[in-house]
Write a structure and sequence with these properties.
Oligomer: single chain
Shape: globular
Structural class: alpha+beta
Strand content: 15-25%
Order of helices and strands: HEHEH
Radius of gyration: 11 Å
Helix content: 55-70%
Strand order of the largest sheet: 1-2
Number of strands: 2
């Protein structure tokens, strides 16, 4: 599941993947780190609390 989500995000040229589910973000981040993809994962609370963009 992570592979397809990350590959879709890479194809769209996104910089960040945002979710409310921490375990999902951890799973995606592990895939991203392993395959050295140019995307960062962010929990929605962090997005609302800090300016990432």
């Amino acid at each position: 599941m992570a592979e397809q989500k990350v590959l879709n995000a890479v194809a769209l040229g996104v910089d960040y993947m945002i979710s409310t589910e921490l375990s999902c973000l951890m799973h995606l981040d592990a895939y991203i780190q392993k395959h050295k993809c140019p995307i960062k994962v962010v929990h929605i609370v962090d997005l609302l609390a800090f300016e990432y963009v």
